[in-house]
Write a structure and sequence with these properties.
Elements lengths: L1 H29 L1 H8 L13 H24 L52
Helix pairs in contact: 1-3
């Protein structure tokens, strides 16, 4: 049960920004008559048939600007990651002590493998 609740909360927080414009449009559709009568800028000019579209456009534009501003602030507040480092002054590998015996020592020698077969097998013959 707790897992389902946590999953629902996570999905709602991830998908909430995409629903914000849809909620504005849904609010407009539900209250279309009130918006056209009271909040519309062109309510005095019915020949334009605005019906509150100006209010909807203004709200969507303000919402988009707010989201753009939040995104810009988030980008500005990101930490700077240094991808390149300055070159090193000097780096030298230490010379190892090398053991050099008088004669080389071979620890593994391959021996030849002889497979002695008294009679060579012949390939199978085709019967027609």
């Amino acid at each position: 049960m707790a897992r389902k609740l946590l999953l629902f909360l996570w999905f709602s927080t991830v998908l909430l920004p995409t629903f914000s414009q849809w909620s504005t449009i849904a609010y407009f559709q539900i209250n279309k008559q009130y918006i056209a009568r009271v909040l519309c800028e062109n309510r005095d000019r019915p020949e334009l048939h605005c019906d509150g579209q100006c209010y909807l456009a203004r709200r969507l534009k303000a919402q988009q600007e707010k989201e753009d501003q939040q995104t810009a602030e988030q980008v500005q507040n990101l930490p700077v990651v240094q991808l390149f480092t300055p070159p090193l002054e000097r780096f030298a590998f230490p010379t190892p002590l090398i053991y050099t015996p008088d004669q080389p020592v071979f620890t593994h020698q391959l021996r030849a493998y002889w497979a002695f077969l008294p009679v060579l097998p012949h390939p199978p013959q085709l019967t027609a």
